[in-house]
Fold this protein.
Amino acid sequence: MPWCPKCRNEYREGIAVCAECGVELVDSLEECGKQAFIFGEKDKMERLQSFLAYNQIETTISYDEEDHTYQLSVGEMKLKQAVKMTHIFLQQEEQMSEEEQITEDGEQAYEDDNQEETVSSEREDLQGEQIEHHEEARGYHAYQNSATRAEDNRSSAYTLLAVGSIGFVVILLMFLGVIPVYQNAGMTKYLVCGVMGAMFILFIVFGVVSMRSSKVLFSKAKAEDSLMTEMEKWCQTNLSPSKVDEGLFEDEELPEEQKYFKRTDKMKSMISDKFLNLDEAFLDHFIDEYYQKLYEES
């Protein structure tokens, strides 16, 4: 049955547009879980959809009858990644627009004032396109700290060691005849006990490996906590909102989403200059967390 992606009302087969919202219906509730994050003209949305698909982000295009615009939707788990890649796409679009103005003899010729105003207006329209649900997506992080990974490895190690040890003991008792499963000793007994015994031995080996990995990760977690504390102390002294914003938004009005990207890029550069060879996922995680403290609390 078709569903409305906005009001989530169910319709009979054959109906294509929601009577209340005026938007096209979708075939399943799975598609209703997608979030519309940008609006614009059809050709721009199609180019952006191809760009996101190349980066393994699946999106859908629908037409909003009320606003007479096309909207691009993506699943909630991919929303933050789609927002970041959209920012890159807009930058590339702007760069391509500038490259088209270079003359054949290699000299860059800018168009007259009216054409410049048109390009500037189009860029402002792109930057002003609504990117929704940014606050919900901000809690999603690909980074997983070492302490959590260590706990997962330790839990897996306990499970593997317990299952492997108990299973191996049972197989050994069956082989010795203490547990009389087979009436007649033969190839079946040796085959089953051999295969199952080898499998439970592998469980034990994997459990030992996981336990060792958890110890290494616990040590790494302590180092990460120490590094994060040191980075936070340095940021409290050297990263104030005024220092981060300095020189970023001169004579330029940007929506909050665009400011976020420029600020985090500058923060990443400043922290990387002070703390060398940082893991990129770890640095992104730290900046996302510290950005909220720096701007939301201030």
